[in-house]
Amino acid sequence: MKENRLSVLMGAAFLMATSAIGPGFLTQTTFYTETLAASFGFVILITIILDIGVQLNVWRIIAVSEKRAQDIANMVLPGLGIFVAVLIVFGGLAFNIGNIGGAGLGFNVLFGIDQKLGAIIAAAIAIMVFVFKEAGKLMDKFAQVMGFMMILLTIYVAFSSQPPIGEAVTKTFMPDTEKDYFIAIVTLVGGTVGGYITFAGGHRLLDAGIKGRNALNQVNQSAVTGIAVASLMRIFLFLASLGIVAQGLTISKDNPPASVFQHAAGDLGYKFFGVVLLAAAITSVIGAAYTSVSFIQTFSPVIQKYQKSTIIVFILISATVFVALGNPVQLLLLAGALNGLILPITLAVMLIAAYKKTIVGDYKHPIVLTIFGVIIVIVMAFLSISTITANFSKLF
Questions:
Q1: 7: domain range?
Q2: What is the pLDDT of residues 47-68, one digit of tens each?
Q3: For the chain, what is the radius of gyration of the CA atoms?
Q4: Least buried of 65, 114, 135, 374, by fewest C-beta within 10 Å?
Q5: SS (H, E, C) the chain
Q6: Is 357 inside any structural domain?
Q7: What is the pLDDT of residues 190-220, one digit of tens each?
Q8: Does 284 map to a domain?
């Protein structure tokens, strides 16, 4: 029983982490390394601190209340949970289309097959995880294996690129003062714990029965482990990219992370990129589908009863849209803008819920986490509104 509980805790952590480590994660990390060079280490450090603040707030309230985020939101304000669920599902579906496309590209890099055929194969692999009776356990194991594999391959590439580690460490704590880090920090926070991602592990623990005040220490451990895994991947990808930048080599604008892997380790490195991209994309497909459906299953007894079937349909729809339309730019633009609103809205709801006795009883939420949460809500809300305004002007 103890081993099974540990497996669930690790599985929840890796589900959250591998949900974050998708195609966008790889591209963002490489892009900002090229832009900020060694000082990007400072951005990663601040992001890790903020990510932990978000994750602990969200997971602790879910555990103490023993309710999913949408049900907590409805208790804070009737109807708010439905609004949040719609945002999560729409954002999750749109980004899953991109994840399916990323997996297809991974198959293309590895075997030279057509990207759309690769996307269909990737969707089939993701669906197989939920076909099995013990889908939860298989999902936990799959996320852990894929997560370890991605990190190990990226470590190899990081060492191959021979980054200036001393400079990276120094500028992590003393960054260049003339550079703007604000947008990079907000982008990385949104990419690591934004949208559906932070709820992936929290809802997984709830489904596995790890909840209540007595489980808080384990919930804390799992939450921090999830951020640590995602951050470890980002750190080594940063070092790999920094090594290429420091050598003065050009990183391709079309596919920055692929360029880094190829520069660092030649054709073998390019194949490694294919493996990393494929693993990152498929685990993100699984995480997005599982979490999106977990946001609507409490609204319908039919969805509750046929949860796995609904997840499979969600993946099939994502794959069908990609095969038919490719990456629909307008849909992704709008979803990206709306997805940015999810973090400040849901985090604000969680912070309010933390002080409602009807939701958490006599539980006392740590004031440090509350302060962290309020700062993140204000910053992310401001940027999200600006982003939505800009994107709507492009769309209409």
A1: 2-328
A2: 999 999 999 999 999 999 999 9
A3: 20
A4: 114
A5: CHHHHHHHHHHHHHHHHHHHCCHHHHHHHHHHHHHHHHHHHHHHHHHHHHHHHHHHHHHHHHHHHCCCHHHHHHHHCCCHHHHHHHHHHHHHHHHHHHHHHHHHHHHHHHHCCCHHHHHHHHHHHHHHHHHCCCHHHHHHHHHHHHHHHHHHHHHHHHHHCCCCHHHHHHHHHCCCCCCCCHHHHHHHHHHHHCCCHHHHHHHHHHHCCCCCHHHHHHHHHHHHHHHHHHHHHHHHHHHHHHHHHHCCCCCCCCCHHHHHHHHHHHHHHHHHHHHHHHHHHHHHHHHHHHHHHHCCHHHCHHHHHCHHHHHHHHHHHHHHHHHHHCCCHHHHHHHHHHHHHHHHHHHHHHHHHCCCHHHHCCCCCCHHHHHHHHHHHHHHHHHHHHHHHHHHHHHC
A6: no
A7: 888 888 888 989 999 998 899 999 999 999 9
A8: yes
Whether 385 is covered by a domain: the verdict is no
Contact 14, 152 (CB under 8 A): no
Neighbours of 371 (CB within 10 A): 12
The answer to the question of residue 288 being in a domain is yes
Predicted TM-score of the model (pTM): 0.88
Distance CA 245, CA 367 (A): 41
Record the tokens describing residue 259, joined without a space: 């360029």
- Residue 184 has what pLDDT? 85
Number of domains composing the chain = 1
> How would you class 270 by CB atoms within 10 Å of its CB: exposed for 0-12, middle for 13-18, buried for 19 or more?
middle
Cα–chain center distance at 100: 15
CATH label of the domain that carries residue 143: 1.10.4160.10
Query: What is the dihedral sign for C-alpha 101, 102, 108, 110?
Result: negative
State the burial class of residue 86 (Cβ atoms within 10 Å of its Cβ: 0-12, 13-18, 19+). Answer: middle
